[in-house]
Design goal:
The complex is a heterodimer of chains A (907) and B (233). Chain A is of the alpha/beta class. Helix content of chain A is 50%, strand content 15%. In chain A, β21 and β22 form a beta hairpin. The two termini of chain A are 58 Å apart. Chain B contains eight helices and 14 strands. In chain B, α3 runs parallel beside α4 and α7 packs across α8. The chains are: A alpha/beta (907), B alpha/beta (233). Chains A and B meet through α22, α23, β18, α24 and β19 of A and α1, α6, α8 and β13 of B.
């Protein structure tokens, strides 16, 4: 087989992952088979080494369990103060996440040590689990070291409890372990561990006795040790594979045989999910978990809660979860698998109880019939499975069975029988059967499947008892009635099943339809909205009618502060809202973050940025199904888009106003400019004309005329300066930048200043390697002209002026030197102020705008201008301009590059 | 200097300016006609057949640029534009439309007369086609053999530099915008790449001008374009 190239999608994904990884902090896990192997000890020893190498670190929390060796290690290491929390009258000390975050901010490369990753936080903490605290630390970019035992790994949880018979409730999702940057296995042979236990080095003595009996049996320890080592080996294998993929050494591409865990309503759903998670981890593929909700009229709520828990577990284990309402489990599963390109289905072994039931073909066979290309993995129904089912079934209240329905079914059948008795003479027996069937349809519609089944049996019995000869006896004289009974029963059962199913489906469909219509209506209403308040009201109305919840819309203002919009009906916990907003994740009720809060807070993510949050306060405390959550998320994104749209309407309006005022200002300026210049042009022209008229003026008259002319020119330059300043000050300076050689701009400035500089020696030295600069030629020319004019004005006639330009790093530096008296010391900066002159009221003309204009122009170009006195006397003005990246293409023809014109014959 | 007697049309709404321009031009023996609006100007230009038009861009009944476009449909008469300093785009539009030179208000009469003289001379000289040997300063260009010499030494030019040079010297005293030069040398597809012209112009100056930062023949009109002047000023 030829070597395959890495899949570009995968490379991109890896790049993204690496990028995300670079921002995240590094996680190191000290991993052991059981308590007492010395994880905390190893972590602290490593920490001491790191500290001696100068790594800033702090101990977030370490539980020494009174072990003296560990205590010794702890001394000298900085420890963060713990948070004291009150819970049921007791003060409990917990890891202080905020203190750790603050430490991390002060020490960007710092390291936080957090013992016991699987620990559950006391109620009222920000996150229910410590590993979530650690995740937040990592997400903020801080490095964390932590410890953990194998029994706390979520996917191994059931196996461990199967081995040890002890339920472990504190678990950590596998992805945390798999994504950790480093895992250090702390290993101790079981015999040594038991020794240590006996010596009292592990727990304090009175606990040790009890503990060793239950947990520290050699068999247990051996098994746990094997599990720990194997799990780590799996991880190493993954790393190895990832490395091989990365370096493309003989690539082994996993074919995407993703898994689909089919969660049933029974208690084995949990086992299926765990097995599937393990399998997916081993295969290194992604997996989904779905629950197909088949319409059943009763017990729906009770099962729903259990299924939701299982789906949540699956989500925690890394699955994509969904719950789908469909009439047929098999076809829904097949469709889902096809849509998501999943080729293996993992499901529990079917129960044996109802095998004979008509129409209850095992799901597996049904799937095979629909799609024979899907692999099916069966999970055994072993006893070790259902830790959390036991716990959950204990906690869920069994719903009261609808005895009423059954009673009604029985009574309806009896009534039918009684009513049919007088009709016996009129109708054939077959038609009386029809009456019963009609009643069964009615019962199925009204009370659902169970009562319909009962009605079917009762009807057959009554029919036999009352109508079939011999009457009032179950005995049957004519054997062919047995066929009638059988057919009647089957028909009744089937009709009942179908009718009940249809009814439930119709209800579910209507429910969905109503919700979707609600969303549509909200979207339609939102599309016409122009104010944030309206968005808030529409959102609140939708949530109240569809979900029966209180809500509040919080929108971020320009300083990213959340503001509650009018129309809010929920009481918002601002801490939760702020957390959700800054992290861009849902928080509060029914999430992993601050679940003790009354509110669920969803971030409003729009295309460009977070726009705010939506707080939802449930009126009745029920679990949130994935469907409802999805609708809520959709609602949140609709609101976010509307808020963003309103934001951009604002922006567009502001821009239009700005453009309009800019245009007005420009036309005003050019009108003023025209009106001021026209009389000046007349003055100058008339003065010149007088000079040209014959006979020529003489003596004093000529002198006066020259003065008029000079004054006009001076007036013109004042007007120019004032107009330029007005333009530069009026807002954003509009630069007409083009790439050009500096030489050209200096040349044109010199040409303009020629009349002023005629008798001065002028030296221009430009470095030969000057790059093209991105300039507004006219404005930079103005800067140069102003500087040259100043030099001409303030230095004695005949003294030289020097212009130099060179590159200096990322800038081009231009200096203009004169040999005049220099600048007054200490005022080198002040001369760039507006209306600032070196000497007040001097005979030299000007209002002191020239240098202020220069500075404004240079700053608009991203450059600087400053002045200094040279050591050898005279002033020096220093300009810097950013080099930028000049275009490489200068229009040279590629083929004509070397040919030259002028060399004898080119054509 | 032998002055050609020419017919000059002034299109300007400001009476005083019209007046002194007229006086100045009459003092150099030209026949002067006046128009105070765009419409009047076009009529005068059609009936008087002027040798030169002096045009103010801001006219009460329309834009001077429209006047130039109209005029260029049927006449090659040189046009000198009068404009305010701030309107760089107006000037470029006017030059692209076919104006030959511009003067910024306020302007000196001496300057006006010099520009008028240069345009009239160019207009007269252009007619006899076939000058193949062009000389200015110490540079000699043989258009037939495509040889450029400075101080008797042959200078090597790239094809682009030569095309640029040839186009500039074919229109002396006239302001050529970047766009016009790009169009003539690089073709219509490059009219936004103004740095092409600037880069090659700088190279050309280095080869031809004695002091490239103080050019005498290839002058820069900042933000607008270039002007070739044959005589030393």
């Amino acid at each position: 087989m030829s070597t395959e190239r890495p899949n570009p999608d995968e490379l991109l994904q890896r790049l993204n992952a690496e990028e995300a990884h670079a921002r995240r902090g590094r996680l190191k896990i000290f991993f052991g088979a059981s308590a007492g192997v010395g994880k905390t000890y190893s972590m602290l020893s490593a920490a001491r080494v790191a500290q001696s190498q100068g790594t800033p670190l702090t101990i977030g929390i370490v539980e020494t369990h009174g072990r003296s060796e560990t205590d010794e290690l702890l001394s000298g290491l900085p420890v963060l103060p713990q948070k004291e929390m009150e819970y049921r009258g007791r003060v409990i000390r917990e890891f202080d996440l905020d203190a750790a975050l603050a430490f991390g901010r002060d020490h960007p490369d710092g390291l936080v040590l957090v013992d016991e990753l699987a620990h559950s936080n006391v109620q009222g903490s920000r996150h229910p689990k410590r590993w979530q605290d650690v995740e937040e630390l990592l997400a903020a970019g801080f490095h964390v070291w932590t410890t953990m035992n194998v029994q706390h790994l979520e996917s191994l949880n059931d196996i461990v409890s199967g081995i040890t018979d002890i339920q472990v409730r504190e678990t950590v999702p596998d992805r945390l372990f798999d994504d950790a940057d480093e895992v250090v296995v702390v290993d101790l042979p079981p015999d040594e561990l038991i020794d240590r236990l006996r010596q009292g080095k592990v727990y304090v003595p009175q606990q040790a006795e009890l503990a060793s009996k239950n947990f520290f049996r050699k068999g247990n320890l051996l098994a746990l040790r094997e599990l720990a080592l194997r799990r780590t080996a799996d991880r190493v294998d993954d790393e190895m594979q990832a490395y091989r993929l990365r370096s493309s050494v003989q690539p082994i591409w996993p074919n995407r045989e993703s898994l689909l865990a089919c969660v049933g309503p029974g208690e084995y759903g949990e086992k299926v999910v765990r097995s599937c998670a393990r399998l997916a981890a081993q295969l290194g593929v992604s997996w989904h978990a779905v629950y197909i909700e088949v319409p059943t009229p009763r017990g729906r709520d009770q099962r729903q809660d259990h299924v939701l828990r299982v789906l949540k577990l699956a989500g925690d284990l890394g699955a994509v979860t969904a719950s789908i309402a469909a009439p047929s489990v098999a076809s829904a599963l097949v469709r889902y698998a096809r849509e998501h390109n999943l080729s293996r289905l993992v499901m529990g072994r079917p129960s044996r109880r109802w095998r004979w039931w008509p129409g209850s073909r095992p799901i597996m066979e049904a799937i095979e019939a629909e799609a024979d290309d899907l692999d099916i993995v069966q999970v055994s129904r072993s006893r070790t499975a259902a830790i959390f089912s036991r716990q959950s079934s204990a906690s869920t209240v069994q719903p009261e069975s609808s005895w009423g329905g059954y009673a009604a079914a029985a009574i309806a059948c009896l009534l039918t029988a009684l009513l049919a008795v007088p009709l016996l003479d009129v109708f054939e027996l077959t038609n009386i059967v029809m009456f019963f069937l009609l009643v069964i349809v009615g019962i199925a519609l009204r009370y659902g499947r169970g009562p319909a089944v009962l009605a079917a049996f009762v009807s057959v019995a009554l029919f036999d008892f009352i109508f079939v000869t011999p009457q009032f006896s179950f005995a049957v004289s004519d054997i062919q009635y047995l066929v009638t009974f059988a057919v009647m029963l089957i028909v009744a059962l089937v009709i009942g099943q179908l009718t009940a199913g249809l009814k439930v489906q119709a209800e579910a469909a209507m429910e969905r339809e109503r919700r979707v219509r609600g969303l549509y209506e909200m979207a339609r209403d939102l599309s016409a909205v122009l104010m944030l308040e309206q968005v808030s009201h529409i959102g609140a109305r939708f949530l109240t009618t569809e979900f029966n919840v209180n809500s509040a819309l919080l929108v971020a203002d320009y300083q990213d502060r959340l503001q509650i919009m009018p129309g809010a009906t929920a009481e918002v916990d601002m801490a939760v809202a702020q957390w959700a907003f800054t992290h861009g994740e849902a928080a509060g009720w029914s999430t992993d973050t601050l679940p003790a809060s009354r509110c669920l807070v969803l971030p409003l993510k729009a295309t460009m940025r977070q726009r705010g949050v939506l707080a939802i306060e449930p009126i009745e405390n029920t679990l949130l199904s994935p469907e409802r959550r999805r609708v809520l998320d959709t609602c949140a994104s609709l609101l976010a888009i509307s808020i963003e749209r309103i934001h951009y309407i604002d922006v567009a309006q502001t821009t239009t106003v700005q453009m309009e005022s800019e245009r007005l200002r420009n036309s005003l300026l050019s009108a003023i400019s025209h009106d001021l210049r026209t009389p000046l042009a007349s003055l100058l022209g008339l003065a010149d004309t007088l000079l040209l008229t014959k006979p020529s003026l003489a003596g004093q008259q000529l002198e006066l005329l020259q003065s008029i002319r000079a004054a006009t020119l001076r007036m013109n330059s004042l007007v120019n300066n004032l107009l330029d300043m007005a333009r530069l000050e009026s807002g954003i300076v509009q630069l007409n930048r083009q790439w050009q050689p500096l030489e050209e701009v200096i040349g044109s400035a010199l040409a303009l200043c020629k009349p002023m500089l005629d008798d001065r020696p002028l030296q221009v030295r430009l470095a030969p390697d000057l790059p093209l600069l991105n300039l507004d030629a006219i404005l930079i020319e103005r800067v140069m002209v102003n500087l040259l004019e100043n030099a001409a004005k303030y230095t004695p006639a005949g003294t030289p002026i020097e212009i130099m330009a060179r590159t200096d790093g990322g800038n081009v530096v231009v200096t203009v030197d004169d040999h005049g008296p220099g600048l007054p010391p200490g005022r080198e900066e002040a001369i760039f102020e507006k209306f600032e002159r070196v000497k007040k009221e001097s005979a030299t003309p000007g209002v002191g705008l020239g240098l202020a204009i220069c500075r404004a122009i240079m700053e608009a170009h991203g450059g600087t201008i400053r002045a200094e006195n040279r050591e050898t006397g005279g002033a020096r003005f220093i300009l810097t301009l950013p080099r930028g990246e000049p275009p490489l293409d200068d229009g040279t023809e590629p083929d004509g590059d070397n040919a030259s014109i002028g060399e004898s014959s080119n054509e | 200097m032998s002055e050609v007697k020419a017919r000059v049309l002034i299109v300007e709404d400001e009476t005083v300016i019209r007046r002194f321009v007229r006086l100045a031009l009459e003092s150099t023996d030209h026949d002067v006609f006046e128009a105070d609006s765009l419409k009047r100007g076009l009529i005068e230009a059609g009936t008087r057949c002027p040798d030169l038009v002096v045009l103010d861009l801001g006219l009460p009944d329309g834009d001077g640029v429209d006047f130039i476009r109209d005029l260029r449909n049927w006449s090659n008469t040189p046009v000198i534009v009068l404009s305010a300093r701030s309107g760089e785009t107006d000037k470029i539009d006017a030059l692209d439309a076919g104006a030959d030179d511009y003067l910024v208000k306020p302007f000196g009469i001496g300057e006006l007369i010099a520009r008028v003289r240069a345009q009239l001379r160019r207009h007269v000289q252009q007619t006899p086609v076939g000058e193949t040997l062009i000389q200015f300063g110490n540079v000699r260009i043989d258009l037939v053999r495509r040889i450029v010499e400075r101080n008797g030494q042959v200078i090597h030019l790239t094809p682009i530099e030569y095309r640029l040079l040839a186009y500039l010297i074919s229109q002396p005293d006239r302001v050529l915008t970047h766009r016009q030069l790009l169009n003539a040398v690089w073709g219509a597809g490059h009219t936004e790449d103004t740095h092409y012209v600037r880069v090659h112009m700088a190279n050309l100056r280095k080869k031809i001008e004695e002091n490239p930062s103080l050019p005498k023949h290839f002058l820069t009109e900042a933000g607008i374009g270039y002007r070739f002047i044959r005589e030393d000023t």
